[in-house]
Fold this sequence. Notes:
The chain is of the alpha+beta class. The protein has a seven-stranded antiparallel β-sheet with strand order 6-7-5-4-3-9-10, with no helix packed on it. About 3% of the residues have low confidence. The longest helix is centred in the first third of the chain and has 26 residues.
Amino acid sequence: MTRNCCTRLTAKNPAVRRWAIPFLLLFLLVPSAFFWIQSGTFYLVVSTPRDGKVLYRLPVKEGQEFSLEYTHSVTGRPVQGTFSLTGDRKIRPLTTTFDAYGPGLPYLDGATEYSVDEQGFITVFHQEEPRDGIRLFVSPLTGEALRLEGRVYELGNLRPDPFLLEIKLKKY
């Protein structure tokens, strides 16, 4: 039997059959796996709601914590709020830490659970329901920043004037 230099590549050809099934599986499974992995991905989205601009979209996991840090506009002292992310795309307030009381900070009455450390920092423990998001005004005066996984993301210093910011947990 003589062979032609141009062997036909058809389904009857054993070489084609041998590679057709793995190629087809690869063609179907890779996009499906990518979609499955991405469908469970949550993002902490920091945006400006007035113009709809997304400033940051940070991948996060359920239960992960982040903090918002700023300099209090009246006391000039640092303030830090910590939050955790819930599985139903909400943000749970955990604590507020500061060393000098000022307007807008939690009032320390008998109903508020708090502690004071050796340096005089007060940590208030919040017992609030999770929120859909956080809206706050930020400015260069107070220099807000978001801290996540050891990285700091500037917020207040992104524009020369104060502006409204929104932080939400979204699934893409």
